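Lab manual, section 2.4: Encoding a predicted structure.

Procedure: take the sequence of the chain (260 residues), apply the prediction step described in section 2.3, and record the output as structure tokens. A sample record is shown.
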Amino acid sequence: MTEPRSEGDAAWEAIAEGWTERVRSGTDTTRLFLLDPAHLEAAGDVSGKRILDAGCGEGRFARMLAERGAEVVAFDYSHRMVELAQQAEAENPLEIEYFQGDMRDLSTLADASFDLVVAYLTILDVEDHVTALTELARVLKPAGELHFSVVHPCFTPPIATWEPRTPGTIAILDKDKLYKKVDNYFPAREVRFRMWPTAPAETINHHRTISDYAHACRATGLLIRDIFEPYPPEEVMAQRDYLRENYRAPTMILFQCVKP
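Recorded output:
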């Protein structure tokens, strides 16, 4: 077992059980209605492709890819997360290979061995994102793609709140939100928060600018092919009004990169 390198790594180990319950219960609407559709659209037909899920957590998206016909290898830094993913694999075998690993050092994986690498909301957990992107690019085949999603740095920087129409209230419904206030886009920095109010540890993310990610891709030889800023379809927003804010100020962004 690899020992946590940082406080952030240790936090994911501490919240593994609660996180797994959260995502498997279907209550994470950001994934269900924003990131799942965006990542699946970017990936296209994955049947027969060899895919690496970098930072797979308890294996949810790895299973979605395998169910669509991909050959999936998946890893996470959290030992407990990998155990939970392997338990799900044992209960419903999809031939997913899981291992504990660090995207800053993938020396156990061969060069040019994957058609697609997916980092689903995980690059922002890594302090050294350039080294991580370099390693992920290394294991890609020529013309292979890296898809990574992060919290949208423009509209969800560390200081960002909705101004309520009624002063002193908390705006939940779209009609109660006047506009979104954003501030302190620069510099890149660490952000601490709890995934849910009673989470046993603070999670650490890293706020970076769009240019930080663009420059990192350039440094690692990756070309940005497309960018997705997902928002739900109208029928979803009609039933879940609180998600309409993503139409006004997107909370997530996905980079579709290609290795020349």
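Check your result against the sample. The chain has one domain: 7-155+192-258.
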